[in-house]
Design brief:
9 strands, UDP-N-acetylmuramoyl-L-alanine:D-glutamate ligase, alpha/beta, about 270 residues, nine-stranded mixed sheet, 11 helices
Length: about 270
């Protein structure tokens, strides 16, 4: 199944409109190219609707919010809904400031999202109004563990039913759920947390996957999450004693570029609940 998802992205080369943060915008563009998609980065309100009309999917990331780009997010999101295009929300740092939290919630009120992807603290803030966000990082107290996994899965499914979106909660154990079914994914490597933007990159890849596999958003999102984790593992295996996190970031992108559908199918580690 995941092999088909990957091959569809490579075959269709979906054009993805990204309104994302300037810390990771270059990496998001490169990771989209690596996975087989094509990026457009456009965050001015004067062209948001026009650009998103040219694309197959939209990725909205609130990592570096400002009053200039927020209107573009709303305009692009509504236009994508009008056109029936998939839309991904990455609520970076929701809970860390009033602006971030209110912007994410307002977007959820006005835009119908295909996937909402964030860490557990961010998702808890959107669902419950409270979480343990530490800046843009999840709080240790919110972490999904083997012991808390059943409750976290139930929470993700309930929020998916409430929003109508696939909920992707990423961390040491990833959960990708709709209202009825959840993938619990065990791929990845702890060193991925030493790089700024692996989550942002994943949201961009997720937008490409749900655009190229629009009839199966749950499975497409799960495939994207597995891909990122598998490539984190493959990249770590390449590191030498002289390599650090900058090399690791590049190796992850290289691994995404080189990954085959068969490798993804074989290396993906998950349970379904």
């Amino acid at each position: 199944m995941f092999r088909e998802m990957l091959e569809n992205v490579r075959e269709k080369c979906p054009l993805i409109h990204n309104i994302t943060n300037y810390v990771t915008v270059n990496d998001c563009a490169n990771v989209l190219l690596a996975c087989g998609g094509s990026p457009i980065m456009a965050d001015d309100a004067d062209e948001a609707e026009e650009i998103t009309s040219l694309c197959g999917g939209l990725n909205i990331n609130i990592g570096t919010l400002n009053q200039r780009t927020i209107p573009a997010m709303h305009l692009a999101g509504k236009k994508s809904n009008e056109l029936g295009h998939p839309v991904v929300l990455d609520p970076v740092g929701a809970g860390a400031s009033k602006l971030r939290t209110e912007t994410a919630r307002k977007l959820m009120e006005e835009v119908r999202f295909t996937v909402i992807r964030g860490n557990i603290s961010e998702i808890k803030v959107l669902a419950l109004g409270a979480g343990g966000a530490r800046g843009v990082d999840a709080d240790v107290a919110d972490a999904v563990t083997k012991e808390t996994l059943p409750q976290a899965v139930a929470f993700a499914k309930a929020f998916a039913r409430e929003t109508g979106a696939v909920i992707a909660i990423t961390g040491a154990i990833d959960i990708v759920a709709n209202g009825e079914k959840a993938y619990c994914i065990y791929n990845g490597h702890p060193m991925m947390s030493s790089i700024t933007g692996t989550g942002c990159q994943l949201s961009a890849v997720t937008a490409a996957y749900v655009t190229a596999n629009s009839e199966k958003p749950l499975e497409a999102a799960a495939a994207a999450v597995c891909l990122m984790g598998v490539c984190g593992e493959k990249a770590y295996a390449r590191l030498t004693e002289q390599d650090g996190n900058a090399t690791y970031r590049n190796y992850i992108i290289d691994a995404i570029f080189r990954l085959t559908g068969e490798e993804l199918e074989q290396a993906a580690k998950f349970d379904v609940f």
